[in-house]
Design brief:
about 100 residues, about 0% strand, globular, mainly alpha
Length: about 100
């Protein structure tokens, strides 16, 4: 079975977590989606680049989530979520390509 690239997992976790929270009106359920995707991405990051890479990218993932909130006040919720997801995917791609 082919592996899903970690940049796609991270972006999907950010977008999917927000989408689930918004459409179900249950923020904790969105948090579960966010956390599960983050855990899967972290496992992939660790396999590719080791613990330091996984730790750094996991911190960036959490920062992207947190940063989407103030950004949403300026540009709107969906544009903010898509922006941080794209940024996280880009960072993940660059770091894992260098590490791998």
């Amino acid at each position: 079975m082919p592996r899903i690239p970690s940049p796609a997992i991270a972006a999907a976790g950010l977008v999917g977590g927000y989408a689930v929270a918004r459409w179900t009106k249950k923020r904790p359920l969105g948090g579960v989606v966010l956390a599960v995707a983050g855990g899967v991405a972290a496992r992939e990051w660790r396999q590719v680049g080791g613990a330091k890479v996984a730790g750094g990218l996991s911190a960036a993932y959490v920062a992207a989530f947190a940063g989407s909130h103030p950004l949403a006040k300026k540009v709107g919720a969906w544009p903010a979520v898509f922006s941080v997801a794209a940024g996280m995917a880009g960072v993940s791609y660059v770091v894992t390509r260098k590490a791998g």
